[in-house]
Specification:
By secondary structure, this protein is mainly α. The chain contains five helices and no strands.
């Protein structure tokens, strides 16, 4: 069965939202190995869904931006910058996805 691109992006966004919820719950409790594994699994699921969306459409601006922001969450600055370079090639004129990922990278660098 072939899944439509919007559905894949929806799954990726859902996985990230689940991660945010889990992180807020875990932050109020003692960090455990099992909670760390759960979060790692959710990150991996989100990346897998972004990869599927980008396999269908390698120029999908939303998937490129969101995956780049997820990479920043994981501390992968080089991966985020590579996705920004891909976005720059995809966007013909100052699209919001480029601005948003640039801003996120700048904020990440400032926080380091």
């Amino acid at each position: 069965m072939v899944v439509a691109e919007p559905e894949l992006l929806h799954h990726a966004v859902t996985a990230v939202l689940m991660l945010v919820f889990v992180m807020s719950v875990v932050a109020s409790a003692t960090w455990t190995t099992s909670a760390g594994k759960l979060c790692a699994d959710l990150y991996a699921d989100a990346i897998a869904h972004y990869d599927k969306a980008l396999a269908i459409n390698p120029k999908h601006k939303g998937a490129l931006e969101y995956k780049g922001e997820l990479y920043l969450t994981l501390g992968n600055l080089a991966g985020a910058e590579e996705l920004l370079a891909r976005l720059n090639k995809t966007c013909s004129f100052n699209c919001s996805e480029v601005r948003d990922l640039k801003d996120a990278i700048a904020a990440y660098k400032k926080a380091q």
